[in-house]
Design goal:
about 180 residues, 2 domains, about 35% strand, alpha+beta, 7-stranded antiparallel sheet, Elongation Factor Tu (Ef-tu), domain 3
Length: about 180
């Protein structure tokens, strides 16, 4: 994950577990008096959100996992890193990251909408620094960013390839042998 606004590359030896990937499909049901059903009208789509939990384990005796936690802290705050000391704007947007791991998408720009940390009990070193924390991340896709246009193109191409691959598999299941 690359923090675009603070210029931080955030890496971990441990990869996320399950990755949730959701996008609302918004439909409007319109009640009409006397009609036996409510006509359904497409009303658009919601924002795509990706969420995952990342364990941050660092059994280091001096600072524990604090250095990695501070990288995530930059995502939880609107200050733009060192620029804040130089009199940056008072109001900053939510930090954005470039992320793609485990989503099946090209690298996309996401707004950080959640970065909650739980420090695990009993995993604190002698100096009181946490050694095992879990961070719950939620990212909301920036569909206005130019990188999203690349994703739209990839989505169409991959869907066409998927349709062809599934047709071949259906043919194998139906006829019992590969057509090529």
């Amino acid at each position: 994950m690359y923090d675009l606004d603070n210029g931080q590359l955030i890496t971990s030896r441990i990869i996320p577990g399950d990755i949730g990937d959701s996008k609302k499909i918004v439909l409007v049901e319109t009640p009409i008096p006397g009609l036996n059903y409510e006509p359904v009208m497409p009303a658009g789509g919601g924002n795509r959100k990706v969420s995952f939990m990342l364990p941050l384990i660092m059994r280091e005796r001096t600072v524990g996992n604090v250095l990695l936690l501070k990288q995530f802290d930059l995502l939880r705050n609107q200050a733009a890193g060192f620029a804040n000391f130089a009199g940056a704007k008072k109001f900053m947007r939510t930090p954005r990251v470039l992320y793609y791991w485990g989503t099946g998408s090209v690298p996309l720009v996401w707004f950080v909408s959640k970065a909650d940390v739980v420090h695990k009990q009993g995993w604190v070193n002698a100096r009181g620094m946490p050694q095992y924390s879990e961070i719950e991340i939620e990212l909301t896709l920036d569909e206005e960013h130019p990188a999203y246009k690349v994703e739209e193109t990839w989505r169409m191409a991959a869907a066409m390839m998927g349709m062809a691959a599934q047709a071949v598999q259906a043919g194998v299941a139906l006829f019992g042998k590969r057509p090529y």
